[in-house]
């Protein structure tokens, strides 16, 4: 049981005690803990104040004032300690040595996807010959995709293109050929268009993807001949691959052209001598082509007595593969930067 002067002395001593305890502390958490030890509900100041009730009432205000003073002092010491450690941390930061001569980490620059590059380059070659780009929807009517191209519903050629049907009359286009139809319906000859774009088929293996990219070509005018087709394709192959490669047209059947042909080019890898890419044959297939069938002209309202035309369609992935030897079509779509960065 202390007297009033004793209690006041004890309270006053708490300030120094706190200082001694807090000074060596180097982080906020321990300073806060010390603060609680002194000022908390069960802290040292509260402990001493329990004795207040035993003092004569007249002396109590004096002790209360002393308690307030010491509380204030401790608060100030807490603040000072916090400022001290904040400064120390800043000092430490400033003292840290940074090697400003270290080369910066390279920031990867983006670039066009390989298929986009190839598509743009192919379009540029055809642009030199006067072809302009035309586009059509990827979700297409059955009529534009098949019927207008002389492929009726029961036609066996439909089996060649396993179709994704959206509804009975709406499909995901299986080829870019419907853009031929849309162009001829809206634009009178002369026509010279190329139509690059995505197409969809129910097909999935290392050389086939359910979505891939084709480039369609169409020329319609008063005196277009098969030799124009051949010259156009030959020019394309030489310019695109920047090599003196030959082409070969093998008779083939597509309902919308007559005559129709499959287009081969000399293998850009081996120049025609035979390698893994061309399976030792020296030739690789790049697409289909032919002279626009009069039935197609009829369907789009072009006079086949006056006009003739050629058309072709080729695979962009195929072009990219022949340029770079990519052997699995999935690489194009996976978005793996280790693959994409190579081009
Ligand atoms: N559309 C055909 C396909 O995807 C390719 C094709 C063949 C396009 C002959 C043509 C062509 O324009 O004349 O299999």
CATH topology of the largest domain: BirA Bifunctional Protein, domain 2
**Helical content class:** 40-55%
Shape: rod-shaped
Strand arrangement, largest sheet?
Answer: 1-4-5-9-8-7-6
Strand content: 15-25%
Q: Assign the CATH architecture of the largest domain.
A: 2-Layer Sandwich
Which regions have little confidence, pLDDT < 50, spanning 5+ residues? none
**Mean residue pLDDT:** 92
Query: How many domains in all?
Result: 2
Counting H and I runs of at least 4 residues, what is the number of helices? 13
Q: Secondary-structure element order, as H and E?
A: HHHHHEEHHEHEEHEEEHEHHH
List all distinct small molecules, including ions and cofactors, that are bound in this structure.
Answer: 3,4-dihydroxyphenylalanine
Task: Give the name of the CATH superfamily of the largest domain.
Answer: Bira Bifunctional Protein, Domain 2
The class by helix and strand makeup works out as alpha+beta
For the termini, the CA-CA separation is 89 Å
Largest sheet: 7 strands, mixed
Write down the Rg.
42 Å
